[in-house]
Design goal:
4-stranded parallel sheet; disordered N terminus
């Protein structure tokens, strides 16, 4: 919460900017307490700032400034840890406290400009945070597909390239003087645990391994590392921040909101579901930022959890960077959760836990009193500041003017470049999922189709394509416009007033459908149905959409094409089983290139290959409370479990489902090892459960054992179709024994292969038994159990999912 008080003008202005640029992040009831004079001043100041076009990037250690250039913290030959320590030692207590909030004011006497920690870049550089503005020479940035669709490509190198493009465009904005910070609060790597979650669209889906791979790939791209990692020795191109740490996947459901929710999570589920993506983000991606979440986990607020922030992230995983709160997440520890006894205690709790910077003003208001009350030592503040200034130094912001520095030559021409726009189109092409294609109805013929009817509330919307946390795109074409570029005689009717479709002009839509050779229905959701602070209460299409679809499909001359835009799953069982609906495509929120990609797929200029990164549940799943964090099923209560690894109920579509215009076959050509003896290096012991399966702790096996027993599996893949295609191959492992908390199956690897018509290729997977064939026990410890394990590759025939198993 932000109020106007005697704090610095720079901070207060930035705080008000926050409320204007991303009001959904804040609760604004304090704003009216400002006096009219203050409000008038801020209004004038903000209008001036928004109209200004600065071309000077903010930096410290100006070599032309004799009063600051000789400070040791400006000496680039010294280790960053020494430089940060020197800088912090020069600050007064008031200056130190001023730097603990996201809008850090300048320190003129040391030549340090203000810094904004909060910027967003979920699927493109965005103006959702106050650190970026598009009012200078650069007016837009490449808008890639929303993450859930990008994930459907199962292509880690593409994820890396997207991160790389975003990092480059972010640095270009900084160099152009349009960024007051280079720390970006993305990616969102929470598990898409419940299909109703409004922010599931921001995530890579429901699988921990896949989400971890996405995190590492994106982070390495943004920060300027190589795809393999290990390239960064000094400067970061930009700073990525993995969020929301941890077990955060509920926003606002049936009166329960994220500010007060206490996620009750077992040690087993933490170990094998909620934590692995963050571990990968830190250990493989080497992220320089983490964000602690609003919610409590087992009673403890995430931002006040020493075990989570300091013991796990920093000590166990080796995290080297800064930790920010989510916005207002410190204030709610006292104000909403009642966990702390006073505001000062909340400040003490988070700083001692390992949090470094507060998105909000709470630390600015209450830290000094906490020090005066001797609840907090100045050294606790120094530790946080050391982490903060170290990251700013790693970004090169204390090395003088960026010209001549690494990344200093990235100019405005790198933003919305042809290369990046092609990548956005490619990502949409590779992510769109073909869910149904009866009798090979698609692709439509560009030459035989003389007339086309395009019907639905999502047909002529450009904004819908972007999803949330999007900046102004370089360009976009609506789905209607993209289809019109193929078929000139195209008739359009929205049929619904909005996506909510509280009223539908069914008769008019039917009349139009009857007069066209083919009909494409553009339906689904948008941000009025699912977003931050808005979880869904059911899984059906809104309003009268289903009624409209059935009527139009029945009246059309030929089977219709149904296109669904959404972040979360929708129960479309009716359409799956309707013979009048020939094909179904899921297009997520496909970004600025998405409409073109969709039209290319419909008319056969691209062969779809995307596969679902989440389970599509039936409507009856809404009986399961969203607040129940358990992953594993419970037979006695009828609890069905969650995600493809544990869910025991019926699915509309399974995780990994997706068909193509081609058919593919697989064969296992070689496995370098097929037997593993666990008694080589440790003593077996028996788990005390009903099946008494012998197991050993992975920690007891040792690193050498785990490395020596890695093996390789080679799989042959053939395209039997008439079109070239990009095909993701998903490799799963499963145990012979089921139940007792074991996953039904577990994704252990994935690769995409491009094959021409009739072409065959072989791909190789590394299988690490200690990582891929282990599971978490009830204490959250990884164990390997004796018994048979199977490698599984799933094939997608049009009626269900079959498996090749070895």
């Amino acid at each position: 919460m932000f109020t106007a008080d005697s704090s610095s003008v720079a901070f207060a202005t930035s705080a008000l900017l926050h409320t204007l640029t991303s009001a959904s992040q804040f609760r604004l009831h304090d704003i009216p307490t400002m006096t009219p004079r203050i409000l008038c001043f801020f209004t004038f100041f903000i209008l001036y700032v928004l109209r200004a076009e600065s071309t000077q990037p903010p930096f410290s250690c100006d070599s032309s400034n004799p009063s600051t250039k000789d400070f040791p913290f400006c000496e680039t030959t010294l280790p960053i840890s020494h430089r940060a320590r020197d800088l912090v030692s020069r600050l007064t207590l008031d200056e130190k406290i001023s730097q603990l909030v996201n809008s850090a004011p300048p320190i003129p006497r040391l030549g340090i400009p203000g810094y904004e920690w909060w910027s967003e870049a979920l699927h493109g550089v965005a103006n959702a945070g106050p650190g970026i503005h598009f009012n200078g020479n650069i007016k837009s940035a490449t808008s890639f597909p929303q993450v859930i669709l990008t994930a459907a490509s199962f292509d880690a190198y593409q994820w890396y390239r997207i991160g790389q493009a975003i990092g480059k465009e972010a640095r270009a904005l900084y160099n152009a003087g349009q960024a007051t910070g280079m720390t970006f609060w993305a990616p969102n790597i929470n598990i898409f645990r419940d299909p109703r979650w409004g922010r599931g669209q921001e995530t890579p889906g429901e699988d921990p391994l896949m989400t971890g791979r996405y995190a590492a790939s994106y982070v390495k791209g943004v920060q300027g590392d190589s795809f393999e990692g290990g390239k960064i020795k000094g400067h970061l191109q930009a700073s990525a921040c993995c969020k929301h740490f941890t077990a955060y996947d509920l926003d606002n459901w049936k009166g329960m909101n994220r500010f007060v929710f206490d996620a009750r999570v077992s040690m087993q589920d933490l170990a094998d579901t909620y934590q692995p993506p963050f571990k990968s983000c830190v250990e493989q991606g080497r992220a320089s930022g983490l964000m602690c979440a609003y919610n409590r986990v087992n009673g403890v607020p995430s931002c006040a959890d020493f075990n989570l922030l300091s013991k796990t992230a920093r000590a166990q995983w080796g995290f080297r960077g800064y930790i920010t709160s989510d916005c207002d997440a410190v204030s709610i520890i006292y104000d909403d959760q009642g966990y702390a006894r006073s505001p000062e205690d909340a400040v003490v709790d988070v700083l001692k836990a390992g949090m470094d910077v507060n998105c909000g003003s709470y630390l600015l208001k209450h830290t000094k009193v906490a020090v005066e009350q001797k609840k907090l030592s100045e050294s606790d503040i120094d530790k946080a500041l050391h982490n903060l200034f170290s990251v700013r130094m790693r970004l090169g912001l204390f090395n003088g003017h960026p010209e001549g520095q690494p990344f200093g030559n990235i100019g405005p021409d790198q933003v919305c470049s042809q290369e990046h726009q092609i990548l956005a189109l490619e990502a949409a092409r590779n992510g769109i999922v073909l869910l149904k294609n009866s009798a090979r109805f698609l692709p439509l013929s560009k030459y035989k189709t003389k007339s086309l009817a395009v019907i639905g509330p999502n047909a002529n919307s450009g904004q819908m394509l972007l999803g949330n946390y999007a900046g102004p795109p370089c360009r976009f074409v609506t789905p209607l416009q993209a289809l019109q570029s193929y078929i000139k005689q195209t008739v359009y009717h929205p049929a619904c007033d909005t996506v909510q479709c509280s009223s539908a002009l069914v008769d008019s839509a039917v009349d139009i459908a009857q007069g066209a050779d083919h009909v494409v229905l553009m339906m689904g959701l948008d941000q009025t149905q699912e977003r931050e602070e808005l979880d869904r209460t059911d899984l059906l299409l809104p309003g009268k959409q289903q009624e409209l679809i059935i009527a139009v499909a029945k009246a059309a001359k030929n089977p219709v094409v149904l296109v669904l835009f959404s972040g979360g799953p929708v129960d479309i069982s009716f359409a799956k089983n309707d013979k009048n609906i020939g094909s179904i495509l899921w297009a997520g929120y496909p970004g600025e290139g998405g409409a073109v990609a969709l039209a290319e797929i419909i008319f056969g200029d691209h062969n779809p290959g995307g596969r679902l990164p989440m389970t599509w549940y039936p409507q009856e799943f809404v009986k399961v409370p969203m607040t129940d964090m358990r992953m594993r099923p419970e037979t006695s209560s009828g609890y069905p479990g969650r995600t493809y690894r544990f869910y025991k109920g019926q699915s509309v579509f399974e995780f990994g489902y997706g068909i193509s215009y081609s058919k593919y076959s697989y064969e296992l050509t070689a496995v370098s090892q097929n037997t593993l003896y666990l008694n080589q290096s440790s003593t077996m012991h028996v788990i005390n459960n009903f099946d008494s399966v012998r197991s050993t702790l992975i920690s007891e096996l040792g690193t050498e054992f785990c490395e020596q027993n890695k093996c390789r599996a080679r799989i042959g893949v053939k395209n039997h179709g008439e079109m070239a295609g990009k095909h993701p191959v998903l490799l799963f492992a499963r145990q012979e024994k089921h139940g007792n908390g074991r996953a039904r199956k577990q994704l252990i690897g994935f690769q995409s292969v491009i094959l021409g018509a009739g072409e065959r290729a072989e791909i190789e997977f590394e299988v690490s038994p200690c990582e891929h064939l282990s599971r978490a026990n009830e204490d959250g410890l990884l164990v390997m159990e004796e018994g048979r394990h199977f490698l599984v590759v799933e094939v997608n025939p049009e009626k269900g999912v079959s498996m090749r198993e070895w």
